[in-house]
Design goal:
Shape: globular
Strand content: 5-15%
Radius of gyration: 24 Å
Helix content: 40-55%
Structural class: alpha/beta
Distance between the termini: 87 Å
Largest sheet: 6 strands, mixed
Length: about 425
């Protein structure tokens, strides 16, 4: 026994030394994403799938708030050099607001870019260089609706604002169900009546984005652009909102529309992931339609490119971070995302396809993509300017605190400040 004990101790010591050496060779990356349940599940699944293929690289998922609070956190961490090794953030105008050329690693020459659709590259580029990779799929901004409520009342999907308001009147007359759900506790959710209406703005004023960027068009003085604010004011004044609209959260809104406690929820279609995660038994009861405009014969969808994946210049593990980003932007990365939350919309990679079995929200979304001229990018993908105070302004308009016209004028002033910060010509 006295001979075996030293041998056993030596073996244990050698094993611990090997384990310690293995840990020393392992690189740990941090991956920052927003705190939406579906986003977190996607991030965790991508991290696990990647580490299974690359055991020498561990991924720690970090979360941040959404909306303006999350925007400020991103900007602060980039400015202080304290950003995660890889992070998820908006494409389009908010991407330009984080000074990509100064803060982000140039990903133009990464292998995955050959598989990326040009439409996505354009919204994560600055001065001809590409700084982002795609994650998740395209989405639309419009109205989630409860299909059972519609069936019970014999309602049809509206293609005009008048039809939409008639449906709301019928739902209110029935009683017991909120015609329109609003969730102002999470202020970012208040913006959809304005942002989701941009397809209709372009139909009325095809050059609005260019004139807006050049300080030649305003929300307050454009009849078409003003209507988003007016529509939000109109549903409030008609008494169509859920009584707890001021304190309800995003998750409350998804629960209400999924369970038929409310009929309509202005929202982005990527909410399908959270509905599947938290209210999966009701996933087939929720459909989607585009934000209705004036003309039922010109009905179409405002689309979003969702978010991008970026690497900050402050990372100390550039090679490993690039390896992770190349995995996210691959067919295997798409498959991991679908595994996590199911299909939420078409991916921006040529090699990625959606499964045959998709929920109604996604099939309704794809219906717009399948029609010529039935989709248009949101304003933030056609202009670098998006005022950061919009979500607070739309809460005020949607709560009856501020008239629509005043809200639009206030947003124009917010936009002016942002344009000056970006140094755009025509705003001096």
């Amino acid at each position: 026994m006295s001979i075996l004990r030293p041998l056993l101790l030596a073996a244990v010591s050698a094993s611990l030394a090997l384990a310690s050496a293995a840990r020393a060779d392992t690189v740990s990356l941090t991956f920052l994403v927003d705190n939406a349940p579906s986003t977190v599940k996607i991030a965790e699944t991508l991290a696990a799938e990647f580490t299974a293929r690359n055991p020498d690289i561990e991924i720690e998922v970090e979360t941040r708030p959404g909306g303006a609070e999350g925007d400020n956190l991103i900007k602060t961490r980039l400015a202080t050099g304290d950003m995660a090794d890889v992070f998820l953030y908006n494409a389009g105008s908010l991407f330009h607001a984080i000074n990509p050329e100064q803060t982000l690693v140039d990903l133009t020459d990464e292998p995955f870019q050959a598989d990326v659709l040009d439409i996505f590259k354009g919204v994560v580029s600055a001065n001809g260089r590409v700084y982002g990779a795609p994650i998740q799929g395209a989405m639309g901004g419009g109205i989630l609706y409860n299909k059972k409520v519609y069936a019970a009342l014999g309602l049809s999907v509206p293609k005009s604002w008048a039809e939409f308001m008639n449906n709301n009147a019928a739902i209110k007359a029935k009683g017991g169900i909120a015609p329109v759900i609003q969730t102002f506790k999470d202020t970012w959710t208040s913006q959809l009546f304005v942002l989701g209406d941009f397809y209709n703005v372009l139909k009325a004023e095809p050059d609005f984005a260019e004139r807006y960027t050049a300080n030649q068009a305003k929300f307050a003085t454009s009849p078409a652009a003003l209507k988003g604010f007016q529509h939000q004011e109109e549903v409030f004044k008609a008494g169509y909102l859920n009584p707890d609209f001021a304190s309800a959260t995003y998750d409350d809104g998804l629960r209400m529309v999924a369970r038929g406690e409310g009929a309509h929820y202005p929202m982005l279609t990527n909410a399908v992931g959270n509905i599947r995660e938290n209210y999966g038994a009701f996933i087939d009861d929720v459909g989607f339609f585009a934000m209705p405009g004036d003309d039922p014969n010109a009905n179409g969808l405002t689309t979003w490119m969702l978010a991008g994946i970026y690497i900050p210049k402050s990372t100390e593990h550039l090679d490993e971070a690039k390896k992770f980003v190349n995995f996210i932007a691959s067919k295997e990365g798409c498959e991991a995302q679908t595994k996590a939350v199911g299909a939420t919309g078409p991916y921006f990679l040529k090699s990625c396809a959606l499964p045959a079995d998709i929920p109604p929200i996604v099939s309704d979304l794809l219906g717009y993509f399948g029609k010529d001229g039935a989709t248009a990018p949101a304003l933030e993908f056609l202009s670098p300017i998006k005022g950061p105070a919009l979500e607070q302004i739309t809460v005020e308009v949607g709560s009856g605190i501020r008239p629509a016209a005043d809200g639009a004028a206030l947003y124009d002033e917010d936009v002016r400040k942002q344009a000056l910060q970006l140094g755009l010509s025509g705003w001096e």
